Amino acid sequence: MKHLVFALVGLLLFSCSQQPAENEKPKMAVVISTLNNPWFVVLAESAAEKAREMGYEATIFDSQNNSAKEAEHFENIIASDYDAILLNPTDADGSVVNVEMAKDAGIPTFCMDREVNSRDAAVSQVLSDSFSGCVKLGEYFVRELDRSGTYAELLGLVGDNNTWNRSMGFHSVVDKFPDLEMVAQQSADFDRNKAMEVTESILQAHPNIDAIFCGNDAMAMGAYQALVAAGKADQVKVFGFDGATDVLNAIAKGNITATGMQFPKMIATKAAEFADQYLDGDRDIAGKIPIDVELVTQQNIEEYR
Questions:
Q1: Is the pLDDT of residue 214 over 70?
Q2: DSSP letters along 119-146, please?
Q3: Which of 66, 130, 75, 127 is nearest to 99 (CA)?
Q4: Are 256 and 240 in contact (CB under 8 A)?
Q5: Integer angstrom CA distances of residue 296 from 10, 129, 160
Q6: Span 269-286, pLDDT tens digits
Q7: What is the pairing mode between strands 211-214 and 258-261?
Q8: Are 185 and 151 spatial neighbours (Cβ–Cβ below 8 Å)?
Q9: Model confidence, pTM
Q10: Are 109 and 103 a contacting pair, CB within 8 Å?
Q11: CB-count burial class (<10 Å; 0-12, 13-18, 19+) for 215
Q12: In 3D, which of 70, 76, 72, 79 has the Cα closest to residue 116?
């Protein structure tokens, strides 16, 4: 009789061990291209905070701007049975295979700020309207330079569509003015330190430029640092894109001329809400959601600080 009781208890314990705990939370993974940038830290933390607010366990993964690292994260996420992925991709083309891998495993992906070059890999992509935002910056750039002068452009990551959308939006305006001449265009990978190095190199070749247009605020701050070191901070106008706190402060001080204000908290919150809706059975979610970008200058800075 004792043997029978022990056998039944053992069977019951084994059966219970095979069942998920009733209070186990569903899980969302937040995969970010890099946390070496305050803007992406806000994006990551906002996404995780919203997921937790809705009852999910949320974990942030840092891809360190490395597609291979991102792929490793996706493999771990799939193996750990996450329910959804909120992704800020490292590369528009290179990240597609990771999103498709998750889709094949039954885990939906929702892109934030950056997109992947696939119409159906991700469920939805919530993005700043970078092109239109840089049209506004281009128009202000033309006015600030009074339609003439020389300038350099610092591009972001060449594999990121935001890099080219921002550049194309800017040039769709500026290229209409023949007296505005671009004397240098180089990538600084959206990185502050690299932007400082690239700007130093540009200044050696073109010491009398009038402006520098930067594809994000981290590069704008790096360019400004190089100008300070060269004694040219008062001679060269710097334009950024993001709305990062340090650039807003620099605009207020007159050190940076303008930036495009993105809204990372809104982007992250929307992506998390869409993921929750999808997991709840709602499939009526738009494939791409553009978020407006606002022009911030020394004239309206107090509205944004």
A1: yes
A2: SSSSSEEEEE-HHHHHHHHHHHHHHHTT
A3: 75
A4: yes
A5: 67, 15, 24
A6: 999 999 999 999 999 999
A7: unpaired
A8: no
A9: 0.83
A10: yes
A11: buried
A12: 70
Give the tokens for residue 49.
């905070």
Q: How confident is the model at residue 3 (pLDDT cuts 50, 70, 90)?
A: very low
Which amino acid is residue 36, in one-letter code? Answer: N
Average pLDDT over the chain, rounded to an integer: 92
- b/e map 155-170, b = 16+ CB within 10 Å: bbbebbbbbbbbbebb
17-20 long-range Cβ contacts below 8 angstroms, 24+ apart:
none
Contact 237, 180 (CB under 8 A): no
161 contacts 131 by C-beta, under 8 angstroms: no
Of the CA atoms within 13 Å of residue 236, those in its CB half-sphere come to 31
Comparing 15-29, 71-85, 125-139, 268-282, the range with the smallest average pLDDT is 15-29
- Give the list of residues 6+ apart from residue 19 with CB closer than 8 angstroms, or none: none
Give yes or no for a contact between 276 and 54, defined as CB atoms under 8 angstroms apart. yes
Among candidates 26, 261, 231, 14, which has minimal Cα distance to 133?
A: 261
194 with 159: CB under 8 angstroms?
Answer: no
Provide the H-helix boundaries in 105-244: 130-144, 161-174, 192-205, 217-230
Report the DSSP pairing between strands 149-155 and 109-112.
unpaired
